[in-house]
């Protein structure tokens, strides 16, 4: 229950955010919900006067609206009749539905709705705005008024048109707006009410905190049963029904559910579901509302899988799956990175993460939570960790220092290619291992599996590294920019395992590393020659890379033999490169120069050697 407890504490630590409307990057609005409240997409808004008369109405573009809710209405489904306390579907709110074609179902829904609303109005916690809405709804004229305002339409028999068909063209030339907003039957259109005043400026009822509190007080009086709360350890008002709409307004999956009386999920051990685990109403509401708020504010959702990280002393915390640029967007990227600047980038990683060290104390903690749903109605916690914030940040620094390489797949605002040094984002690792067309299911699975490697320091799963190595060894299977991105990310993964470093190490005598260096020199010779002639095509080193990794000696003979014309084009520069080939070859032990397949370290040797030669070439050009 620790994740529930931490969410509960998060809610209590951020009560000042309750009802405060915030915006995400896509301009979608959200807020920290009060308890006993949820959100719903509204299709129609009805304004009533302070004395309970109809004022106006309009069709909405599925406005996400904060509404009061009971335990039953929050989890209603199917044919069950559980009305929301104030705002609800047309079939619940319209007392004149029977007059315009409704049946027994609509009558039953309205009766349940109006009786519940009446009990709120007659309670000690009543509110003038709620009283005004009740007085209007009790007049049973909603459909009549909406027809008058051309929000709803009647057919020739004076019955409500619930679905727009071609035969209704005589009613209106163009398809009415309400039928473009509501999916299916218009009786399911959700109505929100508001109170209009001609004398004063009134706050919208869905953002009026006095209305929030009015319903919270009213509903708390109705809850009677108490039980031991497994989260707080106290006897509190209990509940067996818990919230849905966790990821978005249409989300039906629940984290806590116990209605399997037929499937016997808890039978055999317990007679009643609450005997397995009892969670108080207050804790359930606050924890679920905090979770919704956090997901909206900083969660990442991929194919309905939620990746969420938050701190208890400060909500926003560095994402473990981000790269250096995401950690520090203000970082000035360089056009090219030289080996002697790598220390600068290591310091940038530290500075970016150290910015989250503010006011560290013994109680500073970080929570990492991964959620997903296997079915429409069930959601599970796939991964949860709670750890000391300082330890978490240090492990992120270790990750970015160990799983590092030079990357050139970022672009500036002007579209120019830029470079950075550090760990790649987990999403980019997924694309490197499985390709840019990888399905979301694969991407979210990899991102989850990488968390223990980042947070706990475990080895990167070998299948991910092997898959990335195979793709990086086959450059002809993808466009050049994708191969270079795949190569640098793969090198970062291998570097995490081997700890060799980014800079070229001339002292390493590992056969894999040396063969990679040989391939790099061949690649550079041909690449430089082609560049001078203005040609853009793959080099032989790239085309034979798969063969080279499987049979390096045999393939090297072919690649080396094809270098003659390119050495001629380069002239004097080729002699230095040719000498480098000889120097590298001399470093092999006799038995190592064989056709035994290479492991991933050859990519490190290849990439480091290319980087070193490119830097050397730039220096020579600058000194000319």
Structural notes for this entry:
The chain has 624 residues and is α+β, with helices and mostly antiparallel strands. The protein has helices spanning 2-13, 71-74, 90-93, 104-121, 128-137, 142-148, 178-181, 209-222, 281-298, 324-327, 342-354, 389-402, 426-434, 440-455, 462-472, 480-498, 511-532, 540-543, 545-550, 552-561, 564-570, 572-586, 601-623, and strands spanning 22-23, 29-30, 37-49, 54-68, 88-89, 190-196, 226-228, 235-239, 279-280, 300-302, 305-311, 365-373, 379-388, 405-411, 417-422. A four-stranded mixed beta sheet has the order 4-3-6-5. It has a four-stranded antiparallel beta sheet with strand order 10-11-12-13. The radius of gyration is 32 Å and the shape is elongated. The model has no long low-confidence stretch (mean pLDDT 87).
How much β-strand is present in the residues? 5-15%
Strand tally is 15
**Sheet with most strands: strand arrangement:** 4-3-6-5
SS-based class: alpha+beta
Question: Quick summary of this structure?
Answer:
The chain is an alpha+beta fold and 624 residues long.
Brief descriptors of the model:
four-stranded antiparallel β-sheet, alpha+beta, elongated, four-stranded mixed β-sheet
């Amino acid at each position: 229950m620790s994740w529930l407890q931490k969410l509960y504490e998060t809610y209590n630590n951020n009560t000042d955010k309750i009802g405060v409307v915030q915006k995400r990057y896509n301009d979608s609005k959200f807020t920290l919900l009060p308890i006993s409240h949820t959100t719903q997409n509204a299709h129609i808004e009805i304004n009533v006067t302070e004395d309970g008369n109809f004022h106006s109405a309009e069709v909405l573009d599925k406005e996400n609206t904060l509404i009061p809710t009971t335990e039953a209405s929050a989890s209603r489904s199917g044919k069950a009749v559980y009305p929301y306390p104030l705002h609800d579907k047309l079939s619940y709110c319209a007392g004149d539905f029977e007059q315009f074609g409704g049946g027994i179902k609509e009558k039953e829904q309205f009766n349940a709705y109006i009786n519940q609303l009446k009990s709120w109005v007659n309670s000690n916690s009543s509110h003038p705005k709620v009283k005004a809405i009740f007085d209007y709804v009790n007049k049973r004229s909603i459909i009549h008024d909406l027809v008058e305002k051309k929000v709803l339409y009647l057919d020739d028999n004076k019955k409500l048109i619930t679905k727009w068909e071609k035969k209704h063209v005589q009613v209106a030339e163009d398809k009415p707006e309400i039928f473009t907003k509501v999916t299916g039957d218009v009786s399911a259109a959700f109505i929100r009410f508001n109170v209009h005043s001609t004398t004063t400026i009134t706050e919208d009822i869905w953002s009026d905190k006095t209305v929030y509190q009015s319903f919270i007080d009213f509903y708390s009086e109705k809850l009677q049963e108490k039980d031991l709360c497994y989260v707080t350890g106290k006897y509190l008002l209990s509940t067996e029904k818990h919230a849905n709409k966790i990821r978005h307004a249409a989300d039906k999956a629940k984290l806590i559910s116990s209605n399997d009386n037929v499937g016997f999920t808890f039978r055999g051990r317990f007679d009643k579901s609450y005997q397995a685990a009892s969670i108080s109403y207050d804790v359930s509401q606050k924890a679920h509302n905090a979770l919704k708020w956090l997901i909206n504010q900083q969660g990442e959702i991929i194919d309905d899988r939620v990746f969420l990280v938050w701190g208890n002393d400060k909500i926003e915390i560095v994402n473990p799956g981000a790269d250096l640029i995401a950690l520090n967007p203000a970082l000035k990227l360089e056009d090219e990175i030289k080996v002697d600047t790598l220390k600068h980038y290591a310091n940038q990683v530290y500075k970016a993460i150290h910015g989250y060290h503010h006011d560290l104390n013994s109680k500073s903690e970080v929570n990492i939570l991964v959620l997903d749903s296997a079915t429409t109605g069930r959601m599970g916690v796939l991964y949860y960790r709670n750890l000391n914030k300082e330890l978490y940040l240090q492990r992120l620094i270790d990750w970015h220092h160990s799983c590092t390489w030079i990357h050139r797949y970022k672009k500036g605002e002007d579209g120019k290619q830029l470079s950075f040094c550090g760990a790649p984002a987990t999403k980019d690792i997924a694309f490197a291992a499985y390709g840019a067309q990888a399905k979301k299911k694969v991407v979210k699975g990899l991102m989850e599996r990488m968390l223990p490697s980042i947070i706990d320091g475990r080895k990167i799963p070998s299948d991910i590294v092997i898959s990335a190595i195979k793709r990086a060894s086959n450059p002809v299977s993808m466009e050049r920019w994708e191969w270079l991105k795949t190569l640098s990310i793969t090198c970062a993964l291998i570097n995490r395992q081997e700890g060799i470093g980014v800079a070229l190490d001339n002292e390493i005598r590992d056969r894999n590393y040396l063969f990679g260096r040989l391939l790099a020199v061949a690649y550079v010779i041909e690449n430089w020659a082609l560049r001078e002639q203005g040609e853009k095509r793959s080099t032989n080193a790239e085309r034979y890379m798969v063969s080279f990794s499987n049979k390096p000696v045999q393939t090297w003979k072919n690649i080396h033999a094809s270098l003659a014309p390119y050495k001629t084009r380069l002239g004097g520069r080729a002699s230095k490169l040719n000498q480098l080939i000889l120097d590298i070859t001399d470093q092999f032990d006799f038995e190592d120069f064989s056709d035994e397949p290479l492991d991933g370290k050859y990519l490190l040797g290849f990439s480091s050697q290319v980087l070193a030669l490119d830097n050397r070439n730039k220096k020579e050009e600058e000194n000319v």
